[in-house]
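Journal club prep — side note

Before the paper discussion, L.F. wants everyone to see what a predicted structure for a comparable chain looks like in token form. Sequence:
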Amino acid sequence: MAFTLRQLQYFVAVAEQGTVSRAAQNLSISQSSVTEAIKELEGDLGVELFERHPRGLTVTHKGHQFLRHATKILADVSDARLAFSRDQEIVGGRLQLGVTSLVAGYVLSDLLARYRRGFPAVDVSAIEDNGDYLEHLLVGGELDVAVMVISNLRDRMALQAEILEVSPYRLWLPLGHHLAGADIIGINDIAAEPLIMLTVDEIEENTGKLLMALGARPHVAFRTRSVEAVRSLVATGAGVALLPDLVYRPWSLEGDRIESRDISGALPMVQVGMVWRRGSGLSQTARDFIGIAQSHRAVRQR
């Protein structure tokens, strides 16, 4: 029996949410429907897509590989529908995009691929920089749209933003770490551990403020601008990391496993979104890009 699009949607939802209950809630269906769909999908593929544990589900190595295919298939189906809902005339023009480092490889790459498939005649240029500089370029009219972390957007009077994704902070641990088996992990538990700090998109500033606001002084063992370096350092036991779930992957480049756990307490969320100059007449290319991003968000939320 071949797998269905619905099974793929349920699989992606569980992979993103980490539990069947949260996935079912987001999909507005019963937990049994999600469980049955995952079971049938695993039977059809002949592999285990998830490891089951008391706290929920963890995507296996094979499941992580299949997740990339599943998200691409769903995006392609959405693109096919869009192709019939818009004018078939070839649209040209120019689109100037901005992106911050944290989201360049996790959000923009998929959006840009979909946009290029839908509007191949548009000349697209993109610049990667920090949020403050991208805001400056947007206000000055040098960029059409930016895809960036908008949790700390400075100039909200001059700029308009729309959320694409909301990502909670979670704790990254090496396999076998003593905190991985704890029922509850608190901020004080993290304060006693060497911390691997990511230094892009205000993440270091936000993490430091978070820990100190909760009465914990971080012990930073290593600072880096590379998410892959964070993965490798955590996986080999050099420390733990407190990062948005957006950038979590269960394997380092060396193939070592990384665990991810919830933290007790009210932690902030990282908001990723599109930003453009308020009150400006958006070009057709910018409006089309925003439309692609909105449909992409709808696919992820189904």
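L.F.'s comment for the group: The first strand starts at residue 50 and ends at 53. Keep this in mind when we get to the figures.
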